[in-house]
Amino acid sequence: MSYDLYFARREPGQSWDQVLEALDTREEPPPADPVAWDSVVTQTRELLGEVRIVAYPPNWELDHESTGISVNHWEGDWEMSVPYRTHGDDARQVIDLLYRVAAIVERASGLECFDPQLGRPLAEIADREPAVAMFDAVADRFGRRSGTPT
């Protein structure tokens, strides 16, 4: 179970529901963008430090072990995820880093980030607390809030 972010090009006046539906029904993915991928890797390393890269073009994956943040560029599509394994202040820090990496992907790819858990684009998310509350709810559901975060 993970907290996911999606990236897409949204036309003026187009709702995110329309964008996501179009992604599901399109016949071919967009072309891979190795230049954008290299930029994302470089900038993410500057922010997070060491990351693991899995590359088999046109598919690439970046994973940051300590936060669990994952960036995927699969056959032209971009998405990010992080497992619900933290809560409280630790979740707040992970969400902050997740959104900062998402901004890197936006700049490099020219796409807009959408947070389906909050139902809003990244540019409209000023308050991180609703995302943190989701991490806390998952921690409560699985009994992870007592003691050390997992």
- The count of DSSP E runs of length 2 or more, i.e. the number of strands, is 7
Order of helices and strands: EHHEEEEHEEH
Low-confidence stretches: 146-150
Strand count, sense and barrel status of the largest sheet are: 7 strands, antiparallel
Strand order of the largest sheet: 2-3-4-5-1-6-7
CATH structural architecture: 2-Layer Sandwich
Structure description:
Helix 2 (34-48) runs antiparallel to helix 3 and helix 3 (88-109) crosses helix 4 (129-141). This protein has 150 residues and is α+β, with helices and mostly antiparallel strands. The longest helix has 22 residues, at 88-109. The protein starts with a strand and ends in a 9-residue tail after the last helix. The chain has a single domain, classed as Cell Division Protein Zipa, Chain: A (2-Layer Sandwich), CATH 3.30.1400. The chain is built from 4 helices and 7 strands; from the N terminus they run E-H-H-E-E-E-E-H-E-E-H.
Write the layout of secondary structure elements.
Blueprint: E1 2-8, H1 16-25, H2 34-48, E2 52-56, E3 59-63, E4 70-74, E5 77-83, H3 88-109, E6 112-115, E7 120-121, H4 129-141
Quick description:
Helix content is 40%, strand content 23%. By secondary structure, it is α+β, with helices and mostly antiparallel strands. Helix 2 packs antiparallel against helix 3 and helix 3 (88-109) crosses helix 4 (129-141).
